[in-house]
User: Which sequence fits this backbone?
C-alpha cells in the first residue's frame, strides 16, 4: 500500500504522519488489494478536515471527516473508510 499524506495550511508533522499510517494499516485487515491512498489534511479557521482517496481493485473510495481536533478527524475518516471497504467487499462477494 502506497500512502501519501499532504497538508493544506498545516505542516504534516511526524506525529500526524505516524497516526495516519497506524490508522490506515488497520484498514488492510479487511482487504489486501489496497494499492494507493492519498490523504489530505486541511485546516480552515477553527475546523480540521481530513480527506482520503483510496484505490482498491474494482473501485475508488472517497471519504472526508471534520472535527475540532485533527487526530479526531483522522480517526473518524478511518472509521468511514473501514465501513466503505466492508460494503465494497460484500458487494464483490455477492456477484
Assistant:
Amino acid at each position: 500500500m502506497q500512502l501519501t499524506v499532504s497538508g493544506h495550511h498545516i505542516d504534516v508533522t511526524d506525529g500526524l504522519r505516524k497516526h495516519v499510517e497506524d490508522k490506515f494499516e488497520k484498514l488492510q485487515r479487511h482487504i489486501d488489494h489496497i494499492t494507493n491512498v492519498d490523504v489530505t489534511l486541511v485546516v480552515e479557521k477553527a475546523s480540521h478536515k481530513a480527506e482520503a482517496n483510496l484505490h482498491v481493485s474494482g473501485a475508488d473510495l472517497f471519504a472526508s471527516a471534520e472535527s475540532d481536533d485533527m487526530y479526531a478527524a483522522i480517526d473518524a475518516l478511518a472509521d468511514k473508510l473501514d465501513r466503505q471497504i466492508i460494503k465494497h467487499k460484500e458487494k464483490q462477494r455477492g456477484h
User: Anything to note?
Assistant: The chain has one domain: 2-94. The two ends are 26 Å apart (CA to CA). The mean pLDDT is 91.
